[in-house]
Amino acid sequence: MSDPGKQVADDVRTGTVVEAVSADRSIGQLVASATAEMSGLVHDEIALAKAEVRQDVKRGVMGGAAIGIAGVFALFSLPVLSFAAAYGIHNLGLGLAWSFLIVGGAYLVLAGLLALIAMSKFKKVKPPEKSIASAKETASVLQNVKPHPRDVAPSLPREVGGSTKSVARSSA
Fold this sequence. Notes:
Blueprint: H1 4-14, H2 27-91, H3 96-123, H4 129-143, E1 149-150, E2 167-168
Antiparallel strand pairs: 1-2
């Protein structure tokens, strides 16, 4: 047997509240109590998940905003660095027009390399084959399923032809 003092300490530490169960409670009352406690537990778990997701979303938004601002600053620095590179090449003795042409050509070569890398990555993209196969399998299974007919109460009128009208159950 476990130590009752340790059990009480564990209950206090974890926040577990244990009520005394009287012996004269019916099974229905016990089931109702268990259902209510389970419902409370599920609601608490959902609230905890919402709080965690909310916190993660807030961090993600802040990180995304920081990356966006960093991208804008990098974009603003590109013309300045381009002019600096062109004037640096000009200081080496080349004409100013040739210096700007070299910097522009370097950007075109870099853009071409990045486009080639992107094209090779796009060619490797495949459709989600497992998901498609699973969806097709589910669709084929559901096509063969027939609703479970139930007999209509005897007080309802019969259809023309003498057959009993069957009503399919709905899941809504």
